[in-house]
Design brief:
Blueprint lengths: L4 E6 L7 E7 L1 H12 L8 H7 L13 H15 L24
Antiparallel strand pairs: 1-2
């Protein structure tokens, strides 16, 4: 996989994100241009692109990628000053750790 590949994901909050578009070279540039035009944050990660490039348009991301994609989507929402669909800040406990990490 080379640097001239783009993959667009769609997330509606009801199910796992799906592949909306994929492309290389000029088509990749068009995908990126459309994302910028609509102020959609762009995340560059060649390893993730390599994993996602095996999926077909309309296919959901595999469960193994849920965590990393969720973190990217959450950060994109944060950058845009938005909250994910159905998210309620009141439902999050301040004392619940995000990750299971051993105490220091």
């Amino acid at each position: 996989m080379n640097d001239d590949t783009a993959i667009a994901l769609q997330y509606d909050g009801a199910k796992a994100p799906t592949v909306l578009a994929t492309g290389q070279a000029e088509l990749a540039e068009e995908i990126i241009a459309i994302a910028r035009e609509h102020q959609i944050p762009i995340y560059e990660n060649p390893d993730l692109v390599a994993l996602l490039s095996s999926l077909q348009i309309g296919q959901e991301i595999p469960p193994e990628l849920y965590q990393v994609i969720a973190e990217i989507i959450a950060f994109a929402f944060y950058l845009q000053g938005r909250l994910p669909p159905g998210f309620s800040p009141e439902s999050v406990s301040e004392h619940r750790p995000m990750y299971d990490t051993p105490p220091l």
